[in-house]
Specification:
heterotrimer, A mainly alpha, B alpha+beta, C mainly alpha, B: alpha+beta, Rossmann fold, OB fold (Dihydrolipoamide Acetyltransferase, E2P), 2 domains, 5-stranded antiparallel β-sheet, 20 strands, C: mainly alpha, 0% strand
Chain lengths: 310, 359, 303
């Protein structure tokens, strides 16, 4: 509050009362305190804290006994963790590919100047407004072997029809995929549609004058032009996939057999809060962070590193 | 020499809105026709119809003797240049120029030949391996023209190609386009809202308003004998001075407020006695004198004078009407000066106030 | 009009509008695909609602895709007031009110803070402000899991772990990046002249915020509202980590009701409970329509 007169420090145009640099713009700084606090304390501080403590052998409570890479060794020897990583990879890649492809195709269809576009879009997007819990429970019901799709088709006469993904460790991920796609594709479609609509109409005209068929225009002109949209979509979808938790809890609780549909986020939660093994939880979440960084850093470099010709 | 383009009774409605009304135009081979008008007049729409990018509601379009009313743009024998250039951003210049040809399965040797020719005409050889983002506005426009050139067509359509360029570049490229037309001799239909482009480039101008062609004639004809009030006011900068009054003495004179102007020498139709008429005289067809003059003249008072460098503009008030007169630099006068404006009647235009048509 | 040159031949050949076949192959494929896709999307909703309106015998015998022969709202009543979670048997109503209790203040606080953040970032830049913002954005990509425990410790130290306020703060923290981005982008599109004129008139930080920025920002506030209400209502992870059982939001309760009950599963009650939980965000979605789309697009487009 005391305005120390620091002559050397930069001052505003009004020379009447030179103020200290840090008191300039003080209302803004105070108002932004929550943001600053969040950014520094929670995001940076919290992350660093967890990473540091992943090198301890904390159990129920954080303990400052450092044990080097012990937790990580244990982690990678636990089959449950390995399974969860494999699951996430499989689910992640499939989910990414299918949401983007489906979303793009749907966006192309919607871009064809159809009637009732709003109705179609409302229908495709409403799953996005639902909680993953709701989504998971509904699809769990639909995939119920006795009463769901399998049951219905069997009632129709095909008594040997099998469609029970959730109870089979080999196929449980497909069940999750069906539900995940159902929820997320509408969102991707909206992003893609916005991207498509952002393309200069004259490009389409020029392609028509050149005699390029529509499909070729999409493949050779439009999609390359939409690279930024694709990349943004990929990043957003990928960062959502890594966090996959609610859906698994609702649909399969990690099963069948307790492990078949484990995912890293679940592993972290279980060890941190249920199994009272904080160290493992920290190590696992650090691994999650690493995987995000692997996606994020190349993207950030692409987006911001190459911005020399602003 | 047949017609390159014939438009018959072309009508275009968007729902209940009538955008183009019963248009008829013929463009001779090798002619440069400019569609000129304010925004919303339908000029771009007409061009898009000619190109086949818009489906028409009624009428026919013939290009080089072939009915192309239902043909796709690429089958009409046209090339088009867009306001935003519309170059394919991920391809090099060479790629842009060859994309359509490759798609039409033109042999590579022929493609190379055409690109070389276009590049030479447009002076874009050093740019062939660059991408559009690395080109300046003027260069991009040349490539856009090149894309139409390699199509080896007879008709070129231009949709306000210079509007995205700054003034200096615009005048440079304007001359380029004229040179191109002289060198190639293709039929060209050119859309613009800029009257200077129209006046300098066109063999004939079609002045449009509200989906209707107001006048289709050579530039000088449009400038000197505008067929209606709108055309008269649209071309010319500053625009024509309009004096409202009525014709008297059996059409031999024009009563403007308290002054009677003799209409001897008027070049137009039969001037009869009518209640409401408008006399239009261009700023450069009026002389200013501080002393009374013989011949048709009206009194006025100087309000503002603008020094434009090459000459000056005087803004005056006559009978409450604002007028502008172009005078040589030395002819400037201070505000408040009472003057006599001599009107060059043979170069003037008289309009019926109700029909707005030129008499 | 001026007809230069004689048109050779009369109006032969195609004339006027191009014939458009409404039932063209292209259209059939287009609309057909869209309709099939819509069935995929609507099916779960249909099944959810239908199952929730049937009695249990009918559920067992019948086809989940068939509408109820006898409509009953019993499952809904049961779900709301009698369903058992592992701990008690008073249904979802408790969870509903908890969710309301959590959502309303969280939405208000998170939006208030984020809007001020966005405003400060655009109009009152100070040294490092953009750095903090970048950290915020990067932080939004980091999986929550890695920050969970430190936050637990923080809240415990502050004495609010497991309380309503603890959860509100958590929601504010994690909503900050996207909301701040939203507001920042919106405020950056407000002409700077407005701001300068207000400063010339002598207004300060808060004065300009309340008297100029706020009144102009109704659309973006609505978008932020939609994003937050949907996001916070649908949240599960924070609702399970940072609360105590009597504060569990609806989503957590729902999961407990359906997945942790042993013995006979009452599928109709489960579905009724699911519908009830999804009702609020769905209503927000349908009411807000186009604004919802704009909210997504705005949240997704990077500044």
């Amino acid at each position: 509050m005391a305005s120390t007169t620091e002559a050397a420090v930069g001052r505003q145009g009004s020379a009447a009362r030179p103020r200290a640099r840090w008191t300039r713009n003080i209302s803004a700084k105070i108002a932004a305190l929550p943001m600053i606090a969040t950014a520094l304390v929670v995001f940076v501080g919290g992350t660093i804290w967890t990473v540091v403590y992943s090198f301890t052998d904390s159990k129920l409570l954080p303990r400052e006994r450092f044990v080097g890479f012990d937790q990580y060794e244990r982690l990678w020897e636990t089959s449950r963790w390995i399974i969860s990583i494999q699951n996430l990879l499989f689910f992640g890649v499939m989910s990414l590919v299918f949401t983007v492809v489906m979303g793009f195709i749907l966006a192309v269809l919607m871009d064809q100047k159809i009637r009732h576009e709003d109705t179609f879009r409302t229908i495709m997007l409403y799953p996005f407004a639902l909680s993953f819990i709701v989504t998971g429970l509904v699809w769990q019901w639909i995939l119920n072997p006795d009463f769901g799709i399998q049951g219905v088709v069997r009632d129709w006469g095909w008594t040997s029809f099998t469609f029970d993904p959730l109870n089979n460790p080999e196929t449980v991920l497909y069940g999750l995929l069906i539900a995940g796609l159902w929820q997320g594709t509408g969102f991707v479609m909206c992003l893609m549609l916005a991207g498509l609509r952002g393309i200069d109409e004259d490009i389409w005209k020029a392609a028509r004058v050149d005699g390029i068929p529509t499909w070729k225009t999409y493949v050779m002109v439009i999609i390359p032009m939409m690279r930024p949209v694709f990349i943004t979509t990929l990043v957003i979808v990928a960062s959502g996939i890594i966090r996959l938790y609610d859906l698994v809890v609702a649909m399969t609780s990690g099963g069948p057999g307790g492990n078949a549909s484990q995912v890293p986020a679940m592993y972290v939660y279980d060890y941190m809060f249920q199994a009272q093994n904080l160290g493992q939880g920290f190590a696992a979440s650090t691994m999650m962070l690493l995987s995000v960084l692997i996606v994020l850093i190349p993207w950030a470099y692409l987006e911001f590193g190459g911005k020399k010709h602003g | 020499m047949g017609n390159s383009i014939e438009v018959k009774d072309l009508t275009l409605n968007f729902g209940s809105v009538s955008v183009l009304k019963n248009m008829n135009i013929d463009v001779a081979e090798g002619e440069f026709v400019v569609l000129l008008g304010p925004s919303g007049c339908g000029k771009s729409t007409l061009l898009n119809c000619l190109a086949g990018l818009l489906d028409i509601t009624d009428g026919q379009i013939w290009i080089k003797g072939k009915n192309v009313t239902w043909s796709e743009p690429s089958e009409r024998g046209i090339g088009m240049v867009f306001q935003s250039y519309a170059l394919y951003p991920q391809m090099t210049v060479r790629g842009n120029l060859s994309f359509g040809l490759k798609n039409a399965k033109v042999p590579q040797a022929e493609i190379d030949k055409r690109i070389a020719r276009a590049a030479e005409i447009l002076q874009i050889q050093p740019l062939l391996d660059r991408k559009p983002a690395a080109l300046s506005g003027g260069q991009r426009q040349r490539v856009a023209i090149g894309r139409a050139l390699v199509r080896d067509v007879d008709v070129f359509l231009f949709d306000e190609p210079l509007s995205n360029l700054d003034a200096k570049l615009r005048s440079e490229l304007r001359v380029e386009i004229k040179r191109l037309h002289n060198a190639l001799g293709n039929t060209m239909v050119y859309v613009t809202h800029d009257q200077i482009e129209a006046l300098t480039l066109a063999d004939r101008i079609a002045v449009m308003k509200g989906g209707v062609i107001q006048q289709l004639a050579a530039p000088l004809e449009i400038y000197n004998r505008p067929s209606n009030l709108f055309v008269a006011g649209f071309l010319g900068s500053p625009s024509m001075n309009f004096l409202k009054g009525r014709t008297v003495d059996n059409g031999r004179a024009f009563q403007f407020g308290g002054t009677k102007i003799d209409l001897a020498g008027y070049e137009g139709g039969a001037v009869l006695e009518r209640d409401d008429a408008i006399l239009g005289v261009r700023p450069e067809h009026i002389t200013v004198s501080t002393t009374p003059v013989s011949g048709p003249s009206i009194p006025a008072e100087v309000e503002i004078d603008e020094h434009l460098g090459a000459d000056s503009l005087l803004w005056l008030k006559a009978e409450g009407v604002n007028m502008s007169v172009r005078v040589p630099v030395e002819g400037r006068l201070p505000a408040g000066t009472k003057v006599h404006l001599g009107l060059d009647i043979p170069k003037a235009s008289l309009f019926d106030a109700k029909t707005e048509q030129r008499i | 009009m001026a007809d230069v040159g004689v048109a050779a031949g009369a109006m032969t050949g195609p004339r006027g509008a191009k014939p458009k076949k409404t039932l063209s192959g292209r259209n059939i494929m287009l609309y057909g695909t869209l309709i099939v896709v819509c069935v995929y999307y609507l099916l779960p909703l249909w099944v959810m609602v239908m199952t929730s309106l049937k009695g249990m015998p009918e559920v067992r015998i019948g086809n989940i895709f068939a509408p109820p022969v006898e409509i009953t709202f019993q499952p809904w009543v049961k779900a709301w007031s009698e369903a058992c979670t592992g701990l008690n048997c008073d249904g979802l109503s408790r969870g509903f009110w908890n969710s309301v209790l959590i959502t309303v203040p969280s939405v208000i606080v998170s939006i208030a803070i984020a809007s001020v953040n966005g405003y400060a970032l655009i109009n009152w830049k100070f040294r490092g402000s953009d750095v903090f913002f970048t950290i915020l954005i990067f932080g939004s990509f980091i999986p929550y899991q890695i920050m969970l425990y430190p936050i637990v410790i923080l809240l415990r130290e502050m004495g609010i772990y497991g309380t309503l306020w603890g959860l509100i703060i958590v929601h504010t923290i994690f909503g900050m990046p996207i909301l701040t981005l939203l507001f920042r982008n919106y405020f950056s599109s407000i002409p700077e002249e407005l701001f300068k004129a207000a400063r010339v008139d002598g207004a300060g930080f808060w004065g300009i915020y309340f008297r100029i920025m706020l009144p102009m920002s109704l659309p973006i506030f609505v978008v932020a509202l939609i994003l937050q209400v949907t996001g916070i209502w649908n949240d599960f992870l924070f609702g399970v980590v940072f609360t105590k059982p009597d504060l569990y939001p609806m989503t957590v309760q729902l999961n407990n009701i359906v997945n942790s009950v042993q013995g006979v599963k009452e599928y109709n009650v489960n579905m009724a409970a699911t519908v009830l939980t999804g009702l609020v965000p769905l209503i927000v979605y349908f009411v807000s329509g186009k604004l919802f789309v704009r909210g997504i697009a705005a949240g997704a487009v990077k500044g």
